[in-house]
Amino acid sequence: MAIRFWEMFEETKGQYQLRLLAGKNGMDSVVSWVHMVEDETIISRFGGTELAVTTGMKAGTEGWLIRLVTAMKNAGCTGLIVNTGRYLAAVPRQVITWCEEHDFPLLEMPWEISVTRLIQDYCMRIMQQTRREEQTGALFARLLLGKTVPEDFFDEIGSRFHLEGTFRIFCMKPVLTPEENVLFRQAVLRLENAFGLWKNGSKIRFPYFLLELNEAWILSVNDLPDQDVPELTGQIEDLFADFFADSRLHLGIGPACQDIRNLKLALSRARTALKMACHMNLKIVDFNQMGFFGILFSSSDPELLKSYADSLLAPLDAYDSRHAASAKPESGTGPSAAPSPHCDAGYAATLRAYIENDRSLIKTAAATFTHRNTVNYRIQNMKRLLGNELRTPTELFPYQIAFWIRDMGL
């Protein structure tokens, strides 16, 4: 869990005589680093979630501070601390009002307090928190992989997590160039901002951990209600929109699993959803909505699945292959049953439509742009080719499975 602005503020406001002027509702944002800033032009180099400190050297330039806070807000920065007393006597009311309206934290610190000391202190806190995150993340990774962890680890995190509660995993698989890695990690930090702790905020308020594991990013949320899953999914989709846009990112969402000791199961099911998303080129797949695909994609032997489908459908594939070049109507259908000029459905596609339309010849004909008599002739011929009456659910189900396996893109 990354360090947040309000945590540092509460721990240091007395030491540095900090006074919150505006933007209290934005204080739950993550702080990734602290910079000294005197000009808004450098904000374009920020990646977001940075905190800035200014001495107000440009106080003589009209409108400079409102431009600075506007640029920082637009860049996703965490907040601004203004060192008043020398260049700037007081923060203009216009700036305070704007920051309050936009939930952008604006703090004041007297000139007598060393800016350098504050920046060093805050950056040290961020680095220490990063080290703690790495250590805690390594233990969470062991739980995700089903390995043992020291029992005192549960005591340590028991104040943050409901250990016997539910854990739902969001598993993201990015495909990135080295240059894009920086942008992706910045988006990950912004994702952490979706989880707020400040009591007056309006963000998602559930314990979580977020880490990188085996080239995937794992977000695990504790006791997240089912009705809140779409909201969080939507925030993830918005934050990583550029990566989702051209299939460089896929997301698998697992079901809620009880107890932190079952994180391995929670991850397994989230990875199953992710596998479907990757193979079928879908942006987001929720395990709870996968249906029978949840069983298929849980298989550890994709070649076995592919072999099963190919062996069942081989007679139809062979027939379609032999007759692919033929454009004349199939015998036995009569002149009124000549194929539609739109008809390009082979035997395999016809059988699939027949199953999906509950064996209705009329609906199958409409789905395949084929005359009903032609469909009937094909079904009778398929029965002979397959040695199957294609009548009962038991007789049809294996072929439905075979088509689903082919949909998996194995």
What would you say this structure looks like, in words?
It is built from 15 helices and eleven strands. It is α/β, with parallel strands linked by helices and 410 residues long. It has three domains: 5-123, 3-Layer(aba) Sandwich (Udp-n-acetylmuramoylalanyl-d-glutamate--2,6- Diaminopimelate Ligase, Chain: A, domain 1), CATH 3.40.1390.20; 150-296, 2-Layer Sandwich (Alpha-Beta Plaits), CATH 3.30.70; 302-407, Arc Repressor Mutant, subunit A. Strands 6, 7, 8, 9, 10 and 11 form a six-stranded mixed β-sheet that branches. A five-stranded mixed β-sheet has the order 1-5-4-3-2, with helices on both faces. Helix 2 (64-74) links the parallel strand 3 and strand 4. Helix 12 packs across helix 13. The longest helix has 30 residues, at 115-144. The model is unreliable at 331-343 (pLDDT under 50).
In a nutshell, what does this entry contain?
This protein has 15 helices and 11 strands. By secondary structure, it is of the alpha/beta class. The protein has 3 domains: 119 residues, Udp-n-acetylmuramoylalanyl-d-glutamate--2,6- Diaminopimelate Ligase, Chain: A, domain 1, CATH 3.40.1390; 147 residues, Reverse transcriptase/Diguanylate cyclase domain (Alpha-Beta Plaits), CATH 3.30.70.270; 106 residues, Arc Repressor Mutant, subunit A, CATH 1.10.10.
